[in-house]
Each structure stands twice: as C-alpha cells, then as structure tokens.
Amino acid sequence: MSTDPLRTVVSLVDRAPTITGAEIVAELVPPRQFAEASLENYRPDDAFPSQAEAVEAVASFWAAAERPARRGLFRRRPETEEAPPGLYLDGGFGVGKTHLLAAAYNRAAGRRYFGTFIEYTALVGAVGYAGAAKQLGGAALVCIDEFELDDPGDTMMMTRLLGDLADAGTRIAATSNTPPGALGEGRFAAADFLREIQGLSDRFRTLRIDGNDYRRREVEARAHVVDDLDAAVAAVAGTASLDDFGAAVQHLSTVHPSRYVKLIGGLDAVGLRDVTPLTSQTDALRFVAFVDRLYDAQVRVVATGTPLDEVFSEEMLAGGYRKKYLRATSRLVALTSS
C-alpha cells in the first residue's frame, strides 16, 4: 500500500468564495502560529530595550483591565484616571508586535476578538455600522492588527466605532507600522481629518517597538524562485493551487479582500507561474492583502519568474503605501523560504 501523502492541485481562478458577517466574526481569532503566544514565550532582543518595555506595557495593560470594575458599565472613566483604554504598539516589520497582540488576546478573559484592520472594515461592509457595533459591543477586548487608514471612509468609520466601544468599556489593543498621529499620511488628505485622527490617537497609550525583522535575522534573505514549478507543486503534501501570476492577480480584482481568507481556504501551498513586476498600484494593494492572508494561514508560496520581493516598483516603494509593500516583501521572503 502506498504511503505517499494525498496531493491535490487546484486553481485560484476557479474559486469564487462568498462570506457572511457571521463567518467574518468566526475568523476574528489570532492566526494559528500565534495560538499559544504569551508574554512568557516572547523573546525580547536585548539590543532593543523597547521590546522588553513592550512586554511590561502589555502586562500593565491587563493589570489595569483586571481591577474591580466601577459601577455602571457604560460610564466613562473619570478624567483623573490617566491610563487610556487602548494600547497601540507601533514598530517595524518582524519585531514581534503581532505576538504581543496575540498574547494580550490569549491573556484576556471574557468575549474578545482579534483581526486585521481589513477584517473589521469588512465586517462593517457585510453587516453595516450598527450591526458591527452590536456584534463587537460589550466585548472585553478588541485587538486590531496592522491598523491603517487608507481613505476618508475608513477614518470616519473606525474613529466612530472605536470611540463607541471604548466609551462602553471595551479595551482596545492595536499594532501598526505607523504612529496613530501620522495615520493616513501620503494616502489621502489626512490633514482634513486631523480632529478625527487626533481623537483616535488620544484613545491609546502608544509604545514604539524597535528591532530587526526576525524573518531576516539569519541572513539578508531574498524571495526564493523555483526552477520547476510543476514539480514543486506536485511535491506539496496536501492541496496546492497552481496559476499564472497574471491570471491570479486579475482574479483578485474580482474577489473582495474580505473573501481572500476563503479563497485560500484548505490550501497548503500556492504556486504562481511567471511572476512579473506589478504596474498598477490597485493591483499591488490587492496583492498585499492577499499576501497578508497567506501569511496568517502560513500557506507556502512557490513561484517562477521575477522574485516576489521585487514585484513592487521603486515608485510604489517611494509612495504613501511604502510600509505596506515592505511588510508584504518581508512576508513573501518568509513564505517562499518555508
């Protein structure tokens, strides 16, 4: 009897996933690689004291949350209380922000949610503002990974939603590559929304985490390119997709980013043939969102053509979305090296 693992090859472009508000909420948990994340198994780099400070900040954040509740669930905190209801971890790529955010989630008691910024905006898109506020309202903790403001609509919606949640007693923890006061810069007319952005910033204690990207600590790695894609995909134990890169990018334009989690559902690897540099910023941003979901699910990527860390042009890397592209590049290096 053969003991070879079952292998199945599918195509991304043949998948047309749908997703409901209930399914989005069900996915609001940490990525599987952070299911056991804790403050105890986070390893601060001694060369960067801010990493140890971040551990203490998360511990203090929950020490404050665990104090006996004041009478009146919906009462605002007295102005004499200095600690804001939120913690905001600002830092570069691969310094452990998501690990610390997941540690906060895993430490929390009661109902809590963990998702990327795009997942929360997708929830609002699926069930409306009132539906999202009702679903999240009363939670002990809402964790937002990769917080970012890309347009005025997101700014108005998220400042209102987080304000309402915080006023009702929900603790909020977030990570980002941008300090809260600088959100939106270079992406839209952020100066027109200074009041909203400043109001959002005031909800958080902000801590900057410095450090090297752990995904590149061993060597200055590059995204791996395979010589024989068919053989590489055939060698995957489990289910892999195989598509031309151009066709896959085009297909992403037909699927809302909130559905990417289901687009890659059940996959152990994604094969991309004949990768070429992206020429459209719209396509590039969709691809970033796709890479984020691949990374969350730890889906391996195998590819031929241009190395995937070179698909974003110099012009893109010099623009307002630079940090998003660099995050995707870091993740693509990790996913193609696994």
Topology:
Blueprint: E1 7-10, H1 21-26, H2 49-65, E2 86-91, H3 97-107, E3 112-116, H4 117-136, E4 141-145, H5 152-167, E5 171-176, H6 194-201, E6 204-209, H7 229-234, E7 238-244, H8 245-252, H9 260-263, E8 269-275, H10 281-297, E9 300-305, H11 314-317, H12 322-337
Parallel strand pairs: 1-7, 2-5, 2-6, 3-4, 4-5, 7-8, 8-9
Short descriptors:
39% helix; alpha/beta; 338 residues; 5-stranded parallel β-sheet
Shape: globular
Strand count: 9
**What's the end-to-end separation, in Å?**
30 Å
What integer is the average pLDDT?
83
What order do the strands of the largest sheet run in, or round the barrel if closed? 3-4-5-2-6
Q: Describe the largest sheet.
A: 5 strands, parallel
Unreliable stretches (pLDDT < 50, length at least 5) are 68-80, 184-190
Q: What is the helix/strand order?
A: EHHEHEHEHEHEHEHHEHEHH
Number of helices: 12
In terms of quaternary structure, the protein is: single chain
Helical fraction:
25-40%
The percentage of residues in β strands lies in 15-25%
Rg over C-alpha atoms, rounded to the nearest angstrom? 21 Å
What does this protein look like?
- The protein has helices at residues 21-26, 49-65, 97-107, 117-136, 152-167, 194-201, 229-234, 245-252, 260-263, 281-297, 314-317, 322-337, and strands at 7-10, 86-91, 112-116, 141-145, 171-176, 204-209, 238-244, 269-275, 300-305.
- The chain is α/β, with parallel strands linked by helices.
- It has a 5-stranded parallel sheet, sandwiched between helices. It has a 4-stranded parallel sheet with strand order 1-7-8-9.
- Strand 8, helix 10 (281-297) and strand 9 (300-305) form a beta-alpha-beta unit.
- The longest helix is centred in the middle third of the chain and has 20 residues, at 117-136.
- The model is unreliable at 68-80 and 184-190 (pLDDT under 50).
